[in-house]
Every structure is written in C-alpha cells, then in structure tokens.
Specification:
It is built from nine helices and 15 strands. The protein is of the alpha+beta class.
Length: about 325
C-alpha cells in the first residue's frame, strides 16, 4: 500500500516534492508540543512521506489520493503550535504547506490575499509599505504561517485590540476531504446563509485544509505606548483590569500573570499593557489609565507601580 501511494504521489505532484528520508520525516512528525505532554499511550510515529505542494491544485491532488488509499493527511504550517495538532500519531502523509507563498496586498480595501505558507512576518513586510499591518502578533511571528494560525485560531499579543487570527479572516480557500476545492466569499458581512469560512477556523484541518485566505489589514499605529505594573496579588491586579475595561479603554496588549513569592516580598502579579493607534488616541488612553484622575475612577489603580524597562518589551 505504501509503495503504491508513494508512486501515485510522485506521478501527481512530481518526485522532487515527495520526501521519504528519515531526517525530514522525523523532523516534521511533530509540532512544538513537548513530548511529555502527550497523553499516556500516544506516541509519535514516522510519516509515510512528506509532500511539498506549491499550489492549491497540488494540495487537492494529494488529498484525493489519500482518500482513495484511505491514508491520513496531516497538514503542517510553521510547526510552532503547542497543542499537538500537527503530530503524526499514525503513519500518514505530512502535507507541508510552506511553499504556498502568494501575497497580494489591496491597500484601498485594507485586505490581503495570502497563501497558507506565508508567515505573519512576511505578510507584515509586504503590507508595511502601504501603511498596513496584520492584526495578529504571535511570539513566533517569523515562523507561524497564515494557514497554521487560522487552523488553530491563534491568539497573539495584540488580541485585546484586534482579536484572534480567526477574526482577521474575511474569506478563504480550502481543500475538502474529498479533494474538492471550496471558495468562500471574502466580504465583511453577509445577510444570507452561514459564514462557511468559520468552519475551518480553529478546526486544525479536520474539515478541510486552508490553502489561501483573504485577511483584513489595519493601519500601522502612529504611536505604540507600553506600560508595566506590579500588584501585591493576583486578585488586586484582576480587579484593576476589570476597572480598566469598564472605563471603555481597550489596550492593544494586555498580558497579566502572577509568580511565586520572592524572599523580599516583592509584588506577585505583573501586568503589561500597550496603547496604540492614532497618536493622540494612544496618548489619551495611556494618560487616562495612569494619570492623576485614575485614583478617582479606578480605586484599585493607585496600587500600581511602573515596571522597570517596560518599554523594552517586544509588543
């Protein structure tokens, strides 16, 4: 069976795009999820092969063959996921989509038509000359791909202002398990029928393989201001966050967490926030969050203290 499907794959997409060597197969048999997090009794296995398609038609050809030979397909993006969604737990075909590199920026529409293999960093580089950016900002921005972040509905550092990756998607192209190709309308809003592209957001490829997407873009901020605060405990900081949001302020970055006590009884919870957009808007939000009137509006905020070097944080 494996010899037959390998021969069929080589005939369909070309021998140079079908890899069976041990090093490639083992490397692409998993994502970034640590092995110790796998459930008991579940182990990684070597894939039958790794295929590198270069367009949607080749993805469809591979999926049709996999269906005919009853062979699993594991779509792979940048491999930076932490949930095991791209792990090979049964022998199958790993479909590496990183060669789907189309990028077309539509400045007037503030949209981009992007191949699944384009990284978020590459998308931003293409959009920046037009004064635009992608609203998704994961830590793995140079590795994470458009297809992968859509399939996991990835949430980045700027999720507080722009939402998760799925919120950036207006329409997409996907290859269904039958090998058929689905195109959804790339519109901001529709008054008829369900939004079919939502079926593929966060589905990890179960309902189809995303090969192309139309994404909304956002203006590059004129200003990005970063603040850091420490709290005596988690509950106090969480209350301050609620007060901040209740006041109608929506930070771009909002990251909050606690840590183990330190010998000198330093504050145990840290909050990082950013305000961004038009310069005056960002400045006004930052001033409202930490200015003289904050004590009156948000009783918990006087307990905040600036964190040194907060401006050195990434975003």
């Amino acid at each position: 069976m494996s010899d037959a499907i390998l021969q069929a794959l080589c005939e369909a997409v070309g021998t140079s795009k079908v890899h069976t060597d041990h090093e490639t197969s083992v490397f692409l048999a998993r994502d970034a999820m640590p092995p110790q997090r796998f459930p008991a009794g579940v182990a990684l296995v070597q894939p039958l092969c790794v295929v590198y398609p270069e367009d949607t038609q080749e993805v469809a050809a591979v999926v049709r063959l996999a269906d005919a030979y009853h062979t699993p397909v594991i779509p792979m993006g940048g491999g930076s996921g932490l949930m095991g969604g791209a792990a090979s737990v049964v022998p199958g075909i790993v479909l590496d989509l990183r060669r789907l590199k189309e990028v077309h920026i539509r400045p007037a529409d503030r949209m981009a038509d992007v191949g699944a293999g384009v990284t978020i960093d590459e998308l931003n580089q293409a959009a920046a000359p037009h004064g635009l950016m992608c609203g998704h900002d994961p830590w793995t921005v140079a590795v994470a791909t458009v297809g992968g972040t859509i399939s996991t509905n990835s949430l980045g550092y700027l999720g507080g202002k722009y939402g998760a990756m799925g919120d950036q998607v207006l329409g997409l192209e996907a290859v269904l398990p039958s090998g058929d190709i689905l195109h959804t309308r790339a519109v901001e809003k529709s008054s008829t029928g369900p939004a079919l592209h939502r079926l593929f957001i966060g589905a990890e490829g179960c309902f189809g393989i995303v090969t192309r997407a139309t994404l909304r873009l956002f203006p590059l901020p004129q200003e990005r201001l970063l603040q850091g605060w420490t709290f005596a405990d988690f509950a106090t900081g969480f209350g301050a966050i609620n007060a901040l949001l209740a006041a109608g302020i929506r930070p771009g970055l909002l990251e909050f967490g606690d840590q183990d006590p330190t010998p000198d009884n330093a504050p145990l919870a840290t909050l990082f926030v950013s305000y961004e957009g038009r310069r005056r808007v960002a400045q006004a939000e930052a001033a409202a969050a930490s200015g003289p009137g904050a004590a009156h509006r948000w009783p918990r905020l006087p307990q905040l203290r600036p964190v040194p070097r907060a401006a050195d944080l990434r975003s």
